[in-house]
Amino acid sequence: MTTHDTSSAGFHMADFSSFLSYLSDAVTAAWPDRFATRYRKVKVLLMSWDRDDLGVEPEARKLEAVFRGLYHYDTEYWKIPSRRSAVELSRKVADLVDEHGQEGNLLILYYAGHARPSEQPGGSPVWAANRGRDSPTVQSSILHSFLGEVDCDVLLLHDCFHQVQENKGAFVGQGVVETLAAAGGAEPAPTEANDHHSFTASLVQELAHAAHTADWLSVVELHRRILNRMHAWTATLSFRDDAYSVVQVDRRTGQPMFEQPRRRTPVHSFLSRKPKTIVLTPLPHQVQEQSDNESLLLLNPPTPQSQTTPTMGPAILVTCRLRDQRVDTEKWRQWLLGAPEEAKGIQISALFPGFGAVLILELPLAVWDLLPPSPAISFIAYTTGSNHISEFRRALLGSDADDSSSDTAEYESDGDDGFGPGKHHKKTGRRRMRSGREADETTTQYRSSLWPDFFENNRASDDSAEHTPYCLTLAEMQGDEKMSKAARVIRAFVQEADEPSSRYISDEIQEFCAPASFEALSCDPEGDPDLVAILDEPRSNGTHPGAHGMKFLTRGQLYEALVSRAVPQLIDTESKDGNSSERRLIYTTNLDPATTLALAAAAPERHALPLRDFVYKHLSFQSDMDVRLHSSGVQGFSLSFHLPFFAWRQDSHPFTDRRRGGGHNGPLRGSRNISFLNKSGERIQTCIHEAQVSCLIVGVDNRHWTAYGVFDTYHDGGESRHDVRSYQTTQGGAAMDPLTCGRHMADSSVADAREYFLRAMESCVREVKEEWENTGRQVMRALKHQVSLGTGFSLTMHDRTNRAQK
Fold this sequence. Notes:
Layout: H1 16-30, E1 41-49, H2 57-69, E2 74-80, H3 85-100, E3 105-112, E4 114-116, E5 126-128, E6 137-139, H4 141-147, E7 153-161, E8 177-183, H5 199-213, E9 217-218, H6 219-231, E10 236-237, E11 258-259, E12 267-270, E13 279-280, H7 292-295, H8 304-307, E14 315-322, H9 329-338, E15 347-354, E16 356-364, H10 365-370, E17 377-383, H11 389-397, H12 436-447, H13 470-478, H14 485-494, H15 503-513, E18 533-536, E19 550-553, H16 555-563, E20 582-589, H17 593-602, H18 605-619, E21 624-630, E22 636-651, E23 671-673, E24 685-701, E25 704-711, H19 753-788, H20 793-805
Parallel strand pairs: 1-2, 1-3, 3-7, 7-8, 20-25
Antiparallel strand pairs: 4-5, 5-6, 8-12, 9-13, 10-11, 14-16, 14-17, 15-16, 18-19, 18-20, 21-22, 22-24, 23-24, 24-25
Helix pairs in contact: 2-5, 3-4, 5-6, 13-14, 14-15, 15-18, 16-17
Region (Disordered): 400-445
């Protein structure tokens, strides 16, 4: 594995709330209701080979004795035959599922022996009887084929190498399916005869200990205990393999030599879709005849090594990437207060700005085991103690280290800031996130004005991220050869919408943009003469663009203009009130897949998320007004409105929308022929068309912002006064502002973001209101005319409606 693997760097969760939802699912699954987890019946099948060369049977028999004698489970020890292995294993598992696969039961399948990686990429391991080249083998995936639709819970215990697979699509039953294996990745099979550090030996000790000290033991807790035990080994003295057992010594130093058992990391896999861990509890005792071997079985108490291991260790260090840099401290504090006692060890160790926010978290192993998979969350390492960064900083910088005001110190926790339990320091000058009375005063200050004061200041940044096409950069970093560049850009554009709760956003945009390609965006005015957009931005000399500063662009020209400079340069000159200002206007009509690709690819990071929601609401024909003020993280704001309407048009050849969308093969915007309302003898066709006007403003402060305007004009067939070409015709050399529906001059547009937003909304509301009034009045006139025809109106109306629909 390369140390420079950045394949997951482009994946982000939408925001902190999405991360908390993921965390809540894992906590709920890790610590379920302890009084609703008993099973009616538990069946345990322990398997090894009849030609096994590891000597696993003695330890497997001990495990069987624990399940039968202490947990009172129904157990069976079965050896996989060397002949017709796959057939016999299939028959055995099938019979077991038929007999015990009902809801309310638990099925435990244990295997000890050799395992080899599959020759197929991503395939399940291959079980082997021995080390020989001609050893009998069987595919472990046989178990999955029979367990995919069972309604009982299933626990798979593998004392061997096991490649973790989380193909939840293959497990569609009602039960929980979990796997606990001795080793994952490329580690060798750990099972050896008489190995006190083996996976099975650890299982025996921990299950036996839990049976006498607790009423229940979850599989994720069992994973934690076994991980502690298998890593808490000490070096053992090495002897020569002869009849006299001579101690081996180093010839150079004369010191005794020690053997060190291999470090093994047991792995947990949550296979089913049901978010709940299996809980093992002893069943009511039933008197059974025991053999002499079972009655004389002695179990070793927990070793001193495991007793010295931290109770809740090890923990898991992970990183989580969020697109929205806001981390709500109060929301995090409230979440911790409502979490189970066992989850109080969850901590946010660090928070960094990046292409979004980067969280470094410490999670209990149980939470990590059951955390829903997400490419935005990455494993870092196991940890067995608290964060020592403070001690390291003091040792490096001396006693004044705590007085430093580095950026990273801003996010350090002292235990009362909502980031998790931490140590209190008597002497500290480090900046921390506001909490308590200071936070309340700050909140009160901001709430006194809905528009924060700092948006009134010049906060324009020279950060390179503000000048970088965000989604295009992510697409180039991912470099998936199976997907086109356009598909990768759109995937990056909607990636946070891949969560189940917001999947509809991703589906809507991806289906609409499927035909788009960068070949269609080649900047060739002669090959693509269709002008689809207007770009209005300040000139380099600081003067506001007039009639000749407004650019009329094709799709390719729009892409080239945006991607070459994602955010325009700041103006050095100052306005009359002494504050520099800059605004950019992007206007397009009849938003199509290629234009959407151009906007998505060129959008800087600050614009990506608001623009994605804006595009979705426009495509889905929604009415909406949204105001978002980001006062933490990447500070800024977004203002938007969406005004849908129905346009009444009469023409001998009515125009319809040629775009495809809405999750079907029909047009994006619907058109309804209502010619049955026409007067008798009229040959002109009457239609009502769906249309929408949408506007979005994204800014860093009140005088540095970008406005997007998207208007539907298809129903006028290129003759609308809102078409791009219509704004090329000026009156007296003055250009009109398209985002205000041409009601205001472009060179008189205000620099204040809120004032411009209200001006644009006022103009668009008036325009949409006129369309609604025209449609309503025309429909009423037609209905009055039909009513005046007499009592035959209802029948005539019904017949004409049927004919029109046909």
